[in-house]
Amino acid sequence: MSYKVQINDVVRDATAEETAYFEAKKKKYEDNLFSKTLNDFRVERNFKLEKTDWTSSSDLTMSAEMKEYRQKLRDATEGLDTVEKIQAYKFPDEVTK
After folding, report:
1. According to the 3-state scheme, what is the secondary structure of the chain?
2. What distance in Å separates the CA atoms of residue 82 and residue 21, rounded to the nearest whole number?
3. pLDDT per residue over 69-83, tens digit each?
4. Is the per-residue pLDDT at 97 higher than 80?
5. Can you tell me the distance from the alpha carbon of 5 to that of 13, in angstroms, rounded to the nearest whole number?
6. Residues 81, 83, 86, CA angle at the centre, nearest 5°?
7. Closest to 40 in 3D by CA, of 95, 93, 89
8. Are 17 and 26 in contact (CB under 8 A)?
9. What global pTM score does this model have?
């Protein structure tokens, strides 16, 4: 990608050093965006798991549907290696029994 720099109303091509700086800033932003998006995803997933924690009480028998639902939630982050994949992910339908 070619960058332009404007100084005092004069626009010029960025130097190699400026280009490296801009690329490093872009990468840092993208890395932070991925980390933040994944963290937000995990918070939502963990909330969904917490809502069903009561079903894992020792005096209850967890249904097969609930076991499957909770496993899908635990596996939800597998393969999510881009912001786009995280944003496109659809959580499984909630199970209430």
Report:
1. CCCEEEECCEEEECCHHHHHHHHHHHHHHHHHHHHHHHHHHHHHHHHHHHHCHHHHCCCCCCCHHHHHHHHHHHCCCCCCCCHHHHHHCCCCCCCCC
2. 23
3. 999 999 999 999 999
4. no
5. 6
6. 75
7. 89
8. no
9. 0.71
At which residue do the structure tokens 């100084």 appear?
A: 7
The contacts found for 49-57 with CB under 8 angstroms, 24 or more apart, are: 49/73, 49/74, 51/94, 52/95
Chain-wide mean pLDDT for the chain?
93
Closest CA relative to residue 47, chosen from 91, 1, 2:
91
Residue type, 40: D
Residue with tokens 């939800």: 76
89: left (phi over 0), alpha (psi -120 to 50) or beta: beta
